[in-house]
Amino acid sequence: MKQFNYIDLFAGAGGLSEGFIRAGFKPIAHVESNLPACFTLKTRCVFHFLKSVDKDNVYQSYLKGEISRKQLYENTPSNLLDSVINAKIGKQNKNIFKQIDSLLVDREVDLIIGGPPCQAYSYIGRAALKHKKIDERNTYYIQYGRFLKKYRPKIFVFENVPGILSAGEGAYFKNLQKYYKRLGYNVEAKLINANEHDVVQHRERVIIVGWMKKLKFSYPVIKPSKNKYYRNDIFSDLPSIKPNESNKYKFYSKPINEYLSETKIRNCVEFVSQHITRPHNKRDLEIYKLAIEKMEAGIRIKNNTIPIQLRTQSNIKDFLDRFKVVGNQPHAVIAHIAKDGHHFIHHDPDQLRSISVREAARIQSFPDDYYFEGIKECQPRTAAFRQIGNAVPPLLAEKIAKSIFKSLQRL
To answer: H or E element: which one contains 233?
Structure first.
């Protein structure tokens, strides 16, 4: 079987990359500007290496807090850690190219993957697209293209929000297509809902795939799953916890179920890490209690139905669903989860809290052995939530990657 190598741009916490690793691809480099996310990527690189040399016990010691991050990294070849490049794509491209070139060592780049920051693509007007001083995030597709021009991969995968197709009344995506076609690639985009691929949340994403015009290739076939899974399938075995709990690890409260086994979210490790929660004030907890009671009656709480003495904002006309319980139906995890947990209230009235880092990660389909790093300069829990909220669900990424891998084998 052929080996295919890839570069991950705007890598984030590595959700997209994790799917491609599972499908058999080999990472050459991950490029990411956010420092906590870079440590997450490094830690995941260490995990895959230790697993390959049967030293899982070292990694588990780290998850339990028995060894430091520095000690964990000492168990890994330095060039592996160097494959995570902490840099901002754009002005630093020349330096990034040098670092990637040093990592190639007789390897070629078969694939480039990545999901540029998407906030700027959601609401771009035609006037903004024509304006000379465009937000630099609106030009990330051009920066992405410079890596295509430099490394000439056979295929690329560009992930983003649905708004990228309609931005500027469609002009933005047309410009993207024209640019990549000039670079020698056929380009096609499709809207895919992660919920159709065993991810327990409604999360629509645009997956743009490009391939060299000379290749006999077409957009990968990604068949929807026939399975239907719900919140109880992903939360049922996690131990009960209270607000502001920060234990390094806890043992599972129930045996593994079908969903957790089939998706490999829970594996042979007997404990779960980062099942930690944020603190809540008394007023928020009162609202959470009310929201859970209404949910049990089949009603979603709205800001204008919250008793006046409990309201946290005077505006009762806009953003009425600020407080939302995670129901048994799929519930989307958004980047906003890093700011507060009001949109992600746990359904159990005895726990009375917003969801934990691990619960958010499970909704995104990250396996329980995936560790989200932080740094001293910011709240590690907040850093973890931000990385999870911005990530591509690994299960969705794996589906895409497996289809591309099969096609590449036939070329």
So the answer is: helix 231-235
**Cα(399)–Cα(259) distance, rounded to whole angstroms?**
16
Whether residue 45 lies in the annotated active site:
no
| Among 125, 144, 178, 136, residue whose Cα is nearest residue 31 | 144
The SS3 assignment for 211 reads: strand
Map out the domains of the chain as residue ranges: 5-224+392-410, 231-379
CATH superfamily of the domain spanning 5-224+392-410: Vaccinia Virus protein VP39 (3.40.50.150)
Q: For the purposes of burial, counting CB atoms within 10 Å of the CB of 221, is it exposed (0-12), middle (13-18) or buried (19 or more)? A: exposed
Confidence band, pLDDT 50/70/90 cuts, at residue 138:
low
Contact 403, 304 (CB under 8 A): no
pLDDT, residue 328, reads: 82
| Bridge-based pairing state of the strands 271-273 and 155-160 | unpaired
Q: Which of 45, 118, 268, 378 is catalytic?
A: 118
Q: To which residue do tokens 């980062």 refer?
A: 274
Name the token pair of 366. 């990250």
Pairwise CA distance, residues 411 & 124, whole Å: 38
Report for 45-49, 134-138, 316-320: range of highest mean pLDDT: 45-49
CATH class for the domain made up of 231-379: alpha beta
Q: Do domains 5-224+392-410 and 231-379 have the same CATH topology?
A: no
CB-based burial of residue 68 (10 Å sphere; 0-12 exposed, 13-18 middle, 19+ buried)?
Answer: exposed
Residues linked to residue 5 through DSSP beta bridges, in sequence order: 26
Q: Are strands 26-32 and 5-9 parallel, antiparallel or unpaired?
A: parallel
CA distance 146 to 143: 5
Tokens of 314: 């005077």
According to DSSP, the β-strands at 204-212 and 185-193 are antiparallel
Angle of helix 35-52 relative to helix 15-22, nearest 10 degrees? 20
pTM over 0.85: yes
Using CA atoms, how far residue 384 sits from 61, 244, 280, 300, 379, in Å, is: 20, 15, 18, 28, 9
